[in-house]
Request: fold
Amino acid sequence: MSEPMIRVAIVDDQPLFSAGLEMLIEAQADMVCVGTATDGNQAIALSRRVKPDIVLMDLRMPVMNGLDATRALLRDASDQDADVESAPRVIVLTTISRDEVVYRALQAGASAFLTKDATPNRVLTTIREAHAGQLVPDASATLGLIHDFTGSTGADPEELLRRLTPREREVCLLIASGLSNAEIADATYLSEATVKTHVRAILHKLDLRSRVQVVVFAYENNLVSA
Reply:
């Protein structure tokens, strides 16, 4: 049996840009565009109606911006007691990569970001990686953004790590270093399936929505040093 299609919603107030993304997605054998919206309020209504796997979310829009919409979408999932796997993965769209608003979106639980001049291949790869629960293809750019804007909360790292088993602590710190599941499996001599199980447990125990949010959490709470 073939794999289920990746269901993508597009949220952008520029019709030409949105139409181009829709055409790109519809041309893929493993993706389908399940709807479009032009502001954050429409994005929330659309997500509730069609339950996409991925939401491509422009950050700067009228009525409700993409940051507030991202927070609302992920809060919706938490309020409905949805698990991490069933919640939509948000990929934010921006014109400037080193932007505090992008950082705030990642902090809120967005899975990745794309600049609007990204190549079609980068867009498609990011969608597939985010859907698979992996760190974005250009991990160095994401880590650089987090280094630029993160600030310590002053929390006690040991207190936070007590929620995790020793193996989950190890995997958590490797995620925070930007490693993929395959790289973590190599480093820990575990199978990728076991690593995925640990990642799901870490997200659940720390009440996080994405592995990028794990990275932000780790830097903010002194689990790793910027």
